[in-house]
Amino acid sequence: MNEEIVKRIEEISAEGRDEKTEDVPKTNWLVFSICSKKYAIQSSAVREIIRDVAVYKLPFLPSYIEGVINRRGDPFTVLNPIPLMESGNETVPKEPLFLLLKRDDDQISLHISDILFFHEIEDTELHTIANNDEDGLFLGTFDYKGEEIPALNTDTFELILQRDLGAAK
Questions:
Q1: d(CA 63, CA 111)
Q2: pTM here?
Q3: Are 121 and 71 in contact, with CB atoms under 8 Å apart?
Q4: Predicted pLDDT at 131
């Protein structure tokens, strides 16, 4: 009787080894702060993080456009996401820290306060926003140690710029 049980356990173990385990898709997120609030973007969307660069102001632009920075001869539009996320809030991060976004067709940077950490999650752990259209500022949120962190949709920044500045694609 014991031999039958042992044989059956070995068979079940062998079956388990033969089955392929599915790889769950994961995404690495960069978590950063803007004026003490945490946000995240996919780390694959970041070209570079730079500090202590002068922002050249431009006149007659929406309040969320701070100006441009010069990075190796290339101009990057500096966006402050706070006015876009919180209407009426014109807060500008004090620190000269910028996330240069990896874009094929535009050069955009976000003015942020601090880099906090990288965090990898399974794609199913991102709580997407129901009825979110393509120009929604947030993709969703994910949980990190009991705190919900909003995940930004970087494509939206380009759409907002096109809408507000009248650029057509």
A1: 13
A2: 0.79
A3: no
A4: 64
